């Protein structure tokens, strides 16, 4: 297939490249292609089995590093929200219906198109910790060197570990892991999910934290609270206090991860467009840590060492 003859679409933060054919999307990836092609399709198959709209596989040429999938068009919820006339609350209710549907999925194994076995991994504390440490590995080193860097690194790692030990919900549910409105498409048959390759079984609050504290979309506290309480209405068996505890912790750690990833994309891959989102990621961390005493040590460390200049574009 000659990709040069196809229309290239704007990509995401992964190693994948997307091209539009006549009635389909070509996903090309020559790095980490197992995750980005093979596992990606396996997760989509799990979602489709449970009546969640996700891109179905049309054909594959794994040896040549690409698959052909269903084309959902270009209209994401994010694009829809750019129109002032859009009733955002109604859309968020539909998104929460989709999220509730996802949380009920219990399938963990799926045959891939190469007939190998794929198993949805568990989102372990170690994985969460490793992701949070991306902030240390990439962002921290931009501002600190030597003994100061080592001291802050040890303090932050200790705080991250302590926060993860305070997670309340141990029962694992299906987690998209990047559940925000840029990954939700509007189609004639309803909402559809894309960018599913990182799905895991993890904490019930994680996807909601991704949706509410979305670094790509600035929303006021009224909208954030509306979404949060609508989710609780749909999940009446949840302990509100424990859930809010997990939500706050996971939102904070996720945004540290995001700052680390966006810094890495710039330094390692020369993808600089995500740097402009870092200041808002800091704002979201401030929002969640300001009123919860569990973040006392973290707040002290951040106020002392990360002034406004260090929270701007790097």
Biggest sheet statistics: 5 strands, antiparallel
Query: What share of residues is helical?
Result: 40-55%
Total helical segments: 11
**CATH architecture assignment name:** Alpha-Beta Complex
Compile the SSE list and pairings.
Blueprint: E1 7-9, E2 17-20, E3 24-28, H1 33-49, E4 57-61, E5 66-70, H2 77-80, H3 88-103, E6 109-111, E7 117-119, H4 125-132, H5 134-143, H6 146-165, E8 173-175, E9 184-187, E10 190-193, E11 200-202, H7 206-212, H8 221-234, H9 240-269, H10 278-289, H11 296-305
Antiparallel strand pairs: 1-2, 2-3, 3-5, 4-5, 6-7, 8-11, 9-10
Helix pairs in contact: 3-8, 4-6, 4-9, 5-6, 5-9, 7-9, 9-10
Q: Can you characterise this structure?
A:
The structure is a single chain. With 314 residues, the protein is α+β, with helices and mostly antiparallel strands. The protein has a single domain (73-311), classed as Alpha-Beta Complex (Aminoglycoside 3'-phosphotransferase, Chain: A, domain 2), CATH 3.90.1200. It is built from eleven helices and eleven strands. It has helices at 33-49, 77-80, 88-103, 125-132, 134-143, 146-165, 206-212, 221-234, 240-269, 278-289, 296-305, and strands spanning 7-9, 17-20, 24-28, 57-61, 66-70, 109-111, 117-119, 173-175, 184-187, 190-193, 200-202. The strands form four sheets. A five-stranded antiparallel sheet has the order 1-2-3-5-4, covered by helices on one side. A hairpin with a 7-residue loop joins strand 1 (7-9) and strand 2. Helix 5 (134-143) crosses helix 9.
